[in-house]
Specification:
52 residues, mainly alpha, 3 helices
């Protein structure tokens, strides 16, 4: 995969909202938001076969 630069232009208000959202995501325990079956699917087909 080639490293391609992506530029996103935001207003200061949009940047503030995005920054707040990213901080909340980083502080969220994502494992409690996804059931074990879904988590395995997200990790990929290899992981799904090990789910009981």
């Amino acid at each position: 995969m080639e490293n391609t630069e992506i530029i996103i232009k935001l207003t200061s208000d949009e940047a503030l909202v995005l920054s707040d959202w990213l901080e909340r995501v980083q502080m969220t325990d994502l494992s409690r938001l996804v059931s074990s079956g879904c988590a395995a699917a997200v990790r990929g087909p290899e992981a799904a076969r090990y789910v009981g």
